[in-house]
Amino acid sequence: MIHELDDLLRTERLPHVWCPGCGIGIALSAFLRAVKMLARRGKIDPKKIVFVSGIGCTGRAAGYVKLDAAHTPHGRALAYAVGVKLANPELEVVVFTGDGDLVGIGGNHFLHAARRNFDVLVIMINNMIYALTGGQLAPTTPQGVYTTTTPYGNPEPPLDAVKIAAVAGATYIARWPVTLPLMLQKSIERALLKKGFRFIEVISTCPEIFGRHIGYRDPVELLKYLRKIVRVRKGISPLEAEYDWFKVIDCGVFLDIEKPGYIELYNKYFKVEKK
Ligand SMILES: Cc1ncc(C[n+]2csc(CCOP(=O)(O)OP(=O)(O)O)c2C)c(N)n1
Ligand code: SF4
Q1: For residue 19, which ligand has an atom nearest its CA?
Q2: What is the pLDDT of residues 97-137, one digit of tens each?
């Protein structure tokens, strides 16, 4: 059987490891469709893309894409991506990462890459849990929810990565749920053509672990619930966007500005001479 994305997939590695109903595949296919669309229009060369992921269910994506890819240690995807871009600024570096990977163990890299407006696109798949390791608390886990490390309910308020990216200094910030894959694709297309630190949060579904913990083991019911709480809003600031699993999750493009990215500033201050 031939699929329209086969040329961007290592089909010999399929079937993939993700559970039925997992949202990660929806996000990955939105990314690959965006690449395909831009390549067709001559705006991007897939041979210049480097796809970097860390460890986690999300991290497995690096093994399936037919792009230059790296499956790096947990929490270090962004640090690795920064190294790749500094070594060869001609490359378009994309980090495809889990919420635990990026804002848990990798939180410091996130903060400083955004502060530097480093030239990288970060797509964070937020399933609100450490899924691969069986359901421990993530920084993004909603308050009150049972996890294997908070058996009496999570006492902590969750971290909102959109707001962190905004105050730290990103140039593009968006959030989309897996229930709106076309909006996500268009947003990735836009972000791929920009410089600086671009951050897209994908609200994903993990029926196997997170869903089971909150009483939505059925993938369809979980998707229906997600659809209910998502509110698409235009023109609001990232600081106004609500992130509350029990009430509403605001989605949309919250920031799209131009300012010099890190590579441009580096060249300016270090006065790099071309040989
Ligand atoms: C240094 C290090 N610490 C901990 C782990 C164990 N570990 C693997 S994946 C993971 C969390 C995964 O959660 P997330 O990044 O949100 O990805 P998901 O599986 O939910 O997609 C952890 C703690 C590890 N592999 N390496
Ligand atoms: S455990 Fe959750 S995140 Fe991991 S593959 Fe299964 S559904 Fe997806």
Answers
A1: 2
A2: 999 999 999 999 999 999 999 999 999 999 999 999 999 99
Report the run of H or E that residue 144 belongs to, with start and end: none
Domain count, the chain: 1
Quick check: is 62 in a domain? Answer: yes
Cα(65)–Cα(112) distance, rounded to whole angstroms? 27
**Nearest atom (ligand 2) to Cα of 19:** 6
Does 1 reside within a domain? Answer: no
CA distance 92 to 25: 22
* Ligand 1 lined by 100 (C-beta under 6 Å): yes
The CA 25 to ligand 2 mean position distance, Å, reads 10
CA–CA distance from 233 to each of 26, 172, 189, 272 (Å)?
Answer: 22, 16, 19, 42
- Say which CATH number the domain at 56 has: 3.40.50.970
Q: What atom of ligand 2 comes closest to residue 58's alpha carbon?
A: 3
Domain assignment of residue 275, yes or no: no
139-186 confidence digits (pLDDT tens)? 999 999 999 999 999 999 999 999 999 999 999 999 999 999 999 999
The answer to whether position 102 is within a domain reads yes
Q: Is the pTM of this model over 0.85?
A: yes
CB 95 less than 6 A from any atom of ligand 1:
no
